[in-house]
Structures
1.
Amino acid sequence: MGEGVVRTLLDDGATVIATGRDRARLDELRANVVDAETDQRLHTEVLDASAPDLDAQIEALATTYGTFDGVVVAVASWGNQGRRPALSLNDDEWQHLLDANLTTVFRLFRGFLPHTARTGMILQLNGMSADIPFPGAAGVALSAAASKSLTRTIAAEQDGRGPRFYQVILGVVRTRARQRAGVDDPTWLEGEEVGAHVAALVVGTSPLSDTTVHYLTDKRVGPEAH
């Protein structure tokens, strides 16, 4: 999904700073998406949303690259406990899931806000677990629902006085990992379709630019507000 978003933004002429915790995966991303024309416009930087010095890391990015026109947040962690009923989790497992899936979103929103253009946007890509039960993954589902609420609250608090905040809830996306496992369906979303919606929100041309919560679950329908 992230790869599709990066590729679309590059194809639209943007300069993209892709971040993540794993340098090897960032190098793989670069190898998969760049060509001779886009190579100089993709920068990859290690960024850990759980790090104590996250704000300083973000400030360093802004010092290097300037104010951001758009920030896309996509974080997810299944933890190490596997698929388990909610009430079988111990306190440490529960806290880890909340820290990894919710606190990270909060910290990224807070950290990037001062470095995002007033006419820009900050967006979280989320999943359908924000709205529906997710047996065996209560921490992930609860965090998805809570980060949706967080985005709506921040958007209301901003009230047009700074970057726009968005929550985009996605259906199933075709990914390389799923295809390698033999799991694929041509009716699922393409990463580039997600990227096209993100790009339209960055420049403000989407008809949903004035709406905080968007759903992109059916490629035949496209982005819609509920």
2.
Amino acid sequence: MNAITKPAEGTAPGDGHSYRMPLPRLRLTPEVSHGPLDGAWWPRCDALELELPALVGSLDPSIGTVTRVTVGTAAWPDAPHEVMAPGHVIEVALSDGAAKMHAITVDCGTVGRWELLVVPPDEPAGTAALLLTAASDPENPLSAPRLLALAESGLDGQDTWESEGGTGPR
């Protein structure tokens, strides 16, 4: 799955002017993932209705139309049940499971499903960069909650990451 390098374009309601959504901070596995994650997304805020259209608009159109996302209730307590994206509506499902606490599942109808780590918006840039890289490693064996727990543990987390089979952020 690849990200598109240019921002999605659209027309703001009522003014007829073109605008560009900011590029999402997104890193996807370059090939087929062999782990529990297919990449990571670092939203700028916790308002899913503001962040999701940019994420969806940046995904490669060959993956199909994103029809549904599943997010954790704890991370997105105010998430709406539907979000408008360019040209369509996305259903938002909420999950109480611990595995969903820091993840988003992106469903593209019959084409496929991708599991992304959601890096908390207030995460420091250096830590976020390491998490984006680690989660997009096709050989990453760690789940979203485990990656975040390692990031919170600081330098010891890197040793643990490598001892659990990860190649370490590059």
